[in-house]
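Hey, I was hoping to borrow your eyes for a little while. I've been staring at a protein lately and its backbone has me curious. You're getting the sequence in one-letter code plus the fold written as tokens. Would you mind checking whether the tokens look sensible for this chain? Here's the protein in full, and shout if anything looks odd to you:
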Amino acid sequence: MLNKFIDLRSDTVTQPTEAMREAMFKAMVGDDVYGDDPTVNELEKYAAELVGMEAALFVPSGTFGNQLALFTHCRRGEEVILGEDCHIVAHEVGAAAVIAGVQLRALPTERGRMNLDKIRDTIRTEDIHFPETSLICVENAYSNGAVVGLDYIQEISHIAKKNNLKVHLDGARLFNAAAFLKVEAKEITRYCDSVMFCLSKGLCAPVGSILAGNKEFIDKARKKRKLMGGGLRQAGFLAAAGLIALKDMTNRLSEDHENAVYLADELEKIEGIKVDRDNLDINMVFFTMDKVKDISDEIVKHFNNSNIKINGQEGGKLRFVTHYWVSKEDIDYTISTLNSFLNNSGK
């Protein structure tokens, strides 16, 4: 039995590093709503430069940042085109209907890509019968583990400009996408009007995300952030960890990707397991097991008793996520635990 938990549920579970804890303890702070928190100001300036935008805004979470983007870009009753299985549609509690008051026009995707011709056909202009399209949202890396290429985002940008639309990038795992594509993050965001990226997904910061765009957009978003309850006052304690996340932790994400491939290779050695290799671009390993619907809850319980945290199946698949606190030794122990479960259960 291990004396710690290995947590494979998500890369949102990462704990702050010692460097982060020390920086948080020593951080200079002020009142961010008044704009005089020096550490938040430094974070926002650095984040904007990192993604090639004029300005940035520190927000509590990725969902908050995405919904703030919709709220700022769109007028109530307008329409947003996006993938039917993207995070904004699937995992943000229907917030677009409540906060921005917009209609989501969700299109089918293949490895995170909407069909470009379908996007063109879906755009709606002024007509007494229709809501007007104002925004296209893309996601990269996609929440199914796939990364979309620069060519796709560039085509989305061309379509948007031709139709006088804006493009928002849900870049919760933007730096994972950049690591996979072997480009700087700003090479992805250059085709977008706004971008949200998380500091707490795989980068070890305890709280927070960034919304970036041009100065006019961020000025509007700052006031709407206050409306949404996102004025965080002495937020420099959190921003201090965010600075380390962006300056240091973004540079090591390829290690998590390598560990994910190692995990996938080891899983495939077990009879009855099929790994989704088509979506193994970043730090997520999706796989199916024979009779998974029958034993999903039992697996979660067995792993928890072995000091490993995992989620149950969703849509017939299990997902293991690697991150800073998951080593190759942890992966070996995980594989051993899974083999033990299968041998004892007779599956």
Notes: Residues 8 and 226 are 34 Å apart (CA to CA). The first strand starts at residue 6 and ends at 7. The domain at 18-249 is CATH 3.40.640.10 (Aspartate Aminotransferase; domain 2).
